[in-house]
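Milestone M4 deliverable, item 7.
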Amino acid sequence: MNLAILKLKLNMILATIGILLLGFALSLAVADYAFGATFGLGLILSILIFLFFFNIIQWLFGPYLISWAYRTVEVTPNDPVYGWLYNIVAEVARYNNFKQVPKVYIADVPFPNAFAYGSPIAGKRIAFTLPILRLLNKDELKAVAGHELGHLKHKDVELLMAVGLIPALIYYLGWWLFWGGVFSGNGGNGRGNNGGLLFLIGIAMMAVSFVFQLFVLFLNRMREAYADVNSALTVPGGKENLQLALAKLTLSMDPEALERFKKRSSTNQLASMLFFAGSTEEVPTWNARELVEIWKSVKVPWYADILMDHPHPAKRIQLIEKIGK
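Output delivered:
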């Protein structure tokens, strides 16, 4: 196995286990200190049960809300206009050993994007917005489909939903402590904790939940990188075409990005990546190739994408460059 892929997999496993164990341990320790072992454990379980059922409902029925919000229309193999898109997804699904082709949708929104979603009720789904169909050629769309199908194959939605329980658990535990401190001058079930201390611990826990959300974003960025790896490894030409697709998507939203990457330091480049123009633009392939070449050698600081759910595009390009056909 490629060393870069092995390192990525190991980091994902360690991050997942670390978030879960550290989050549970912190929550149990604080609940035990504030409320005692019995009530504290019961509170933790109650919060988890509430979050679990809320997330399950969201997971099962969320795809229908997404389809409504994005105004999606399903594409069939016999569609006279977009049947070719279904064929692209079906081809990439075969590369990825899917027993059944996910449902294919077109989303009527004004920005270029593709995304995978679904549930046991709604089934596996992949959607492409109309602008991305105009922006990318068929080979680039295959590479994008390889990325999105990678999310379905790796069960990223389910994994991130489970790990995402941790910052929510810590937040709601902090919420309980906060209001316990507000309304009780003598909290802690006889442990001698006054209301002011509970109040402060509650605020601290809610702040810590934000830190854990950053951990979840870190894991999400690795899952996105792993989906890039899936495209590069399973789709013929996926490596080069996914790189071009990333560059075209960036340049379509920010036509000046290429010039800024040429002129500015990597620190300032982050600002350019966070700027989005009001409408998409056509992108010449040679401009995309030039941006890809620049990204291959850009040194991106570790904090550049700390608040993003996707890795900095230069990091994605550099990882793809290390693997693939």
